[in-house]
């Protein structure tokens, strides 16, 4: 049975799902050295934001197949290191959207009305109504930086509260922003005009210290800034100085440059600053959502299935996956087949999406084809995560083409591999109830479902050849399950595809090519 380590607190609903397929150990609060010591025993690691999964931990995790982040941000995981090792990294892109958006809105209102300090004052025994006069958000301008899932939800609630909405997000269209009720503006204008600024962007090299002494200087002296996205987007010393000097009105932060927050000027500021300990996703609902979402993906990957929200498998979102899953299986089978027909070192793979398939995303099919192609060399070491990298490292060039005009089957996939021993091609389609069929080998039309063990011959189409091959295989006790010949013209060149019950014993290929009329023979395991 597989073993899963859960190293941060996650909801029991997730543990229950993992327990269906694995032994689950929950060990929270581990020091990095302790994690390194035990991680080698585990097939999967499930975390929240508390565990930093460094390259060292990934390298010590020799059995790891998947790292599941119960939340959105994977900035606490060394994703490139995981990718190099072929470890899938999954997250829960939507499970805590509402929780994080509501936390940002709660922070905005709490900051405006001094709720935390007023509450603390009453609890201390005071009844001070003069110190906590606040401001209304109604008719004020909210500047939203990052109009993705969380930013959009904040926008719709803020709109209902009567706020005017400005947004900055270079990756969304003006139409999309307008749909959500936001005016898309340049960042400087947003800084100059907003009464409240809320950040909903990832932490990247462009967004690190986006809010600094210079940008803070562009804001209104009454502006209040809210960060429930990621620590480090705001330069904290500059923020503390700006609040102290009255250059901005205040700030509410849920996330920090270093967590847990250590010594910080922010702690000593008054009611203009509110701090929460990374609570954006901390609702019962969100924790159930993310735990189930990520645990299901870990379960699937441990069962050999693809994950729906893998961050290191390009182009493989849940919607794409649903539609392309059967074609990915087809691509992998064709990749295995063409790789073995080509033999030697493959230098070029042409992946052609044909017919209806031509309108689909090609990237997942390219990855699956490469996974199949590299299986011969790498076996279980190659997977959807590292297939691209492994192919690049081996100097395999990939060309993707599309031909919507091919109408033989509703949608088909054609792979052509060129290597040190020549060029071979295979085509396949899904027939009936999504059953894989080989429809062409080296330009010869056939129609056979692939089987685990197969033999292909290139021969001259002439009387007696099938019988001779059958007798030869029979004499070596090889049982033929099915056989089909593909030819373009009568008595021209032809391809024979044989499904056999067991692997072809060593030395028989050499005997097959001695049969008069047979020019070449290949055996493959799919
Ligand atoms: N505090 C918490 O507990 C908590 C919980 C959930 C998410 N988060 C964080 O909230 C943030 C937003 O999450 P989301 O789910 O909305 O992500 P998302 O991917 O749906 O949205 C992010 C948006 O930021 C935009 N963006 C990227 N770079 C930008 C840039 N340089 N300038 C402006 N916009 C840019 C993108 O186009 C996208 O629309 C992330 O940092 C996430 O880690 C925090
Ligand atoms: O695990 C948490 O509570 C934080 C989650 C949040 O920061 C996220 O990125 O999803």
Automatic annotation (TrEMBL):
Q: Which reaction does it catalyse?
A: (2R)-3-phosphoglycerate + NAD(+) = 3-phosphooxypyruvate + NADH + H(+); (R)-2-hydroxyglutarate + NAD(+) = 2-oxoglutarate + NADH + H(+)
Q: Which GO terms of type biological process are on file?
A: L-serine biosynthetic process
- Which superkingdom? Bacteria
Q: What is its EC number?
A: 1.1.1.95
SUPFAM superfamilies, per this entry? ACT-like (SSF55021), Formate/glycerate dehydrogenase catalytic domain-like (SSF52283), NAD(P)-binding Rossmann-fold domains (SSF51735), Serine metabolism enzymes domain (SSF143548)
Q: Which UniProt keywords apply?
A: Amino-acid biosynthesis, NAD, Oxidoreductase, Serine biosynthesis
PROSITE patterns per UniProt: ACT, D_2_HYDROXYACID_DH_1, D_2_HYDROXYACID_DH_3
PANTHER family named in the record:
D-ISOMER SPECIFIC 2-HYDROXYACID DEHYDROGENASE FAMILY PROTEIN (AFU_ORTHOLOGUE AFUA_6G10090)
Protein name per UniProt: D-3-phosphoglycerate dehydrogenase
Instruction: Give the classification, highest ranks.
Output: Bacteria, Bacillati, Cyanobacteriota, Cyanophyceae, Nostocales
């Amino acid at each position: 049975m597989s073993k899963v380590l859960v190293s941060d607190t996650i909801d029991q609903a997730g543990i229950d799902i993992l327990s269906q397929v694995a032994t689950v150990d929950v060990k929270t609060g581990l020091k990095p050295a302790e994690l390194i010591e035990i991680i080698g025993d585990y097939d999967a690691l499930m975390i929240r934001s508390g565990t930093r999964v460094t390259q060292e931990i990934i390298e010590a995790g020799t059995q790891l197949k998947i790292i599941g982040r119960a939340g959105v941000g994977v900035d606490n995981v060394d994703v490139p290191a995981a990718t190099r090792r072929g470890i899938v990294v999954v997250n829960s892109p939507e499970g805590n959207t509402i929780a994080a958006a509501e936390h940002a809105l709660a922070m905005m209102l709490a900051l405006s009305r001094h709720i935390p300090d007023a509450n603390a004052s009453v609890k201390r025994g005071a009844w001070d109504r003069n110190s906590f006069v606040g401001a209304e958000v109604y008719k004020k301008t909210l500047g939203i930086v990052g109009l993705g899932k969380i930013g959009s939800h904040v926008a719709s609630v803020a709109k209902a509260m009567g706020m005017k909405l400005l947004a900055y997000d270079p990756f969304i269209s003006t139409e999309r922003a307008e749909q959500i009720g936001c005016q898309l503006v340049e960042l400087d204008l947003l800084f100059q005009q907003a009464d409240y600024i809320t950040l909903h962007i990832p932490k990247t090299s462009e967004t690190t210290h986006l809010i600094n002494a210079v940008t803070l200087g562009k804001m209104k002296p009454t502006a209040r800034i809210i960060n429930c996205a990621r620590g480090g987007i705001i330069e904290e010393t500059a923020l503390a100085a700006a609040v102290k000097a009255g250059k901005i009105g205040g700030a509410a932060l849920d996330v920090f440059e270093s967590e847990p927050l250590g010594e910080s000027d922010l702690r000593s500021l008054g009611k203009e600053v509110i701090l929460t300990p990374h609570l954006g996703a901390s609702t019962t609902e969100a924790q159930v959502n993310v735990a189930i979402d990520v645990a299901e993906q870990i379960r699937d990957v441990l069962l050999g299935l693809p994950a729906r929200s893998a961050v290191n498998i390009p182009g493989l979102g849940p919607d794409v996956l649903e539609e392309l899953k059967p074609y990915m299986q087809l691509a992998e089978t064709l990749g295995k087949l063409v790789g073995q027909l080509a033999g030697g070192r493959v230098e070029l793979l042409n992946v052609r999406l044909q017919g209806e398939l031509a309108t689909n995303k090609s990237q997942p099919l390219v990855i699956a084809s490469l996974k199949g192609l590299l299986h011969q060399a790498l076996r279980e070491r190659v997977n959807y995560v590292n297939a691209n990298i492994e192919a690049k490292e081996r100097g395999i060039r990939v060309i993707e083409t599309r031909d919507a005009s091919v109408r033989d089957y509703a949608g088909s996939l054609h792979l052509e591999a060129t290597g040190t021993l020549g060029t071979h091609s295979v085509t396949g389609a899904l027939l009936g109830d999504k059953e894989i069929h080989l429809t062409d080998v080296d330009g010869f039309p056939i129609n056979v479902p692939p089987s685990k063990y197969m033999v292909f011959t290139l021969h001259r189409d002439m009387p007696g050849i099938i019988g001779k091959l059958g007798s030869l295989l029979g004499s070596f006790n090889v049982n033929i399950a099915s056989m089909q010949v593909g030819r373009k013209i009568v008595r021209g060149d032809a391809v024979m595809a044989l499904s056999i019950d067991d692997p072809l014993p060593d030395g028989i290929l050499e005997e097959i090519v001695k049969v008069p009329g047979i020019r070449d023979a290949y055996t493959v395991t799919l």
